[in-house]
Amino acid sequence: MIEYRNLRVAVLGGGSVGSQVAALLLQHGEELAARAGAGLELVGVAVRNPDAPRDTDIPAHLITTDAESLILGADIVVELIGGIEPARTYILQALNSGADVITANKAVLANHGPELFEAAEQVGAQLYYEAAVGGAIPIIRPLRDSLAGDRVKRILGIVNGTTNYILDRMDTRGDELREALAEATRLGYAEADPTADIGGFDAANKAAILASLAFHTTVSLDEVYCEGITGVTGEQVRAARKAGYVVKLLAICERITADGVEGVSARVHPALVPLDHPLAAVHGANNAVFVEAEAAGSLMFYGAGAGGVETASAVLGDLVSAARRHVAGGPGVAESTHANLPVFPIASAITRYQVTLEVNDEPGVLATIAQLFSDHSVSVEAVSQSVAGGQGAERPTATLVIVTHEAIESSLAATVASLTASPVVASVVSVLRVEG
Ligand code: NDP
Ligand code: HSE
């Protein structure tokens, strides 16, 4: 048997992901050691409540509530607690003691990334986070390493499994949002507080991480426009399908030019995706990240975006990489923020829109509405009309569905304000961006 140098691995958190990481590490320790060139000894799993039921059998002697002592004795610390505190403090303690850190925690990275990367660089340690975006899907390493020689133009991603699961059930089974969310929570996809999923915040965390990596620029969470799916109704999902679209929560990170200045933009919102686009075929809790790069062209990364054992795969990949660096020596690779591009707000984004209006069914209304779009330089691509209601009433109404060509978000917002104020418009029923 080969004798390896032994590395002490501390796992913080024994929940959906942590319990699977511990189990796989115990089960496949020898194989992982052969790949890493070092023994990977699980020295403990820190939890909050040692008596809580676990998804896997972790030997009782490895369970502890003393995370700090565990960190001090470790070469590699795997943070799988989630949330900001105490995760941030534990990661800093681990890095400051010289340990490499692996985390799946997008919230702590999106909120405190620069501080954590700086701490890692100071001591020459490594901070890995493949599982923080896209669960099992390799996307961090491809962006950081494989595409380091290219220029990324755009990323279009389904990066939240819970919301994709919910929207998919609303589309394919006619569920309402609440019942689909309950099932996603039962299956372990949702965050401890599912508002993070349905409010779009989890996807916004991931968008900040992806945009920072892809554009070599620090993009902070408050620079990511965020709109969740709480306002998406079953009726909208059904109407979308009839019109040839599916509703998806997308994270969009792109290089844009505003007033002649090159910068980046990051946004998360529900969007209409044409049924023939590859992202429309992403079902259940799966994630997919579509990357457009100048030289490489279009690339798609697809797979399980959530789930304990699936996410554990990405964590263990990081663990093997971290162990290899321990064996080879040398400092960790610092985050690259050299481009330092300006981050533009949503008002500068350019996309297509579908605007649904209830209007008075009278002569000249269509012309009035077309003029309001034209007044704000928003070009109309297609219009369809159906009778909405009010027949026999004093003022019959019609439903107009207008799809625009690409327009700047600020122009579209001004158009919607004019439509809302117009006497011929009974109501602006919905405004959805059309992507892909
Ligand atoms: P869980 O809520 O299932 O588990 C969290 C674990 O942390 C629990 O074991 C809990 O202990 C422990 N814990 C909480 N507070 C403390 C504390 N103060 N000290 C020590 N331990 C503590 O989370 P997940 O496993 O689902 O997620 C872990 C991380 O992975 C998060 O950052 C999440 O965003 C990320 N992630 C999760 C995915 C998923 O599909 N679940 C996918 C991708 C990323 P106890 O068990 O005693 O309560
Ligand atoms: N709650 C997250 C999701 C877990 O649904 O995608 C994976 O990050």
TrEMBL record:
Entries under InterPro entries matching the protein: ACT-like_dom_sf, ACT_dom, Asp/hSer_DH_NAD-bd, HDH, HDH_cat, HDH_CS, NAD(P)-bd_dom_sf
Location of the ACT domain: 354-433
Molecular function per GO: homoserine dehydrogenase activity
Pathway annotation: Amino-acid biosynthesis; L-methionine biosynthesis via de novo pathway; L-homoserine from L-aspartate: step 3/3; Amino-acid biosynthesis; L-threonine biosynthesis; L-threonine from L-aspartate: step 3/5
The reaction(s) this protein catalyses: L-homoserine + NAD(+) = L-aspartate 4-semialdehyde + NADH + H(+); L-homoserine + NADP(+) = L-aspartate 4-semialdehyde + NADPH + H(+)
The keyword Magnesium appears for this protein: no
Residues forming coiled coils: none
The protein's enzyme class: oxidoreductase
KW Oxidoreductase (keyword) present: yes
Cofactors: a metal cation
Top-level taxon: Bacteria
PROSITE patterns: ACT, HOMOSER_DHGENASE
EC identifiers of the protein: 1.1.1.3
UniProt keyword annotations, A-Z: Amino-acid biosynthesis, Methionine biosynthesis, NADP, Oxidoreductase, Sodium, Threonine biosynthesis
Function: Catalyzes the conversion of L-aspartate-beta-semialdehyde (L-Asa) to L-homoserine (L-Hse), the third step in the biosynthesis of threonine and methionine from aspartate.
The protein's name in its UniProt record: Homoserine dehydrogenase
Source organism of this protein record: Antiquaquibacter soli
Lineage, highest ranks first: Bacteria, Bacillati, Actinomycetota, Actinomycetes, Micrococcales
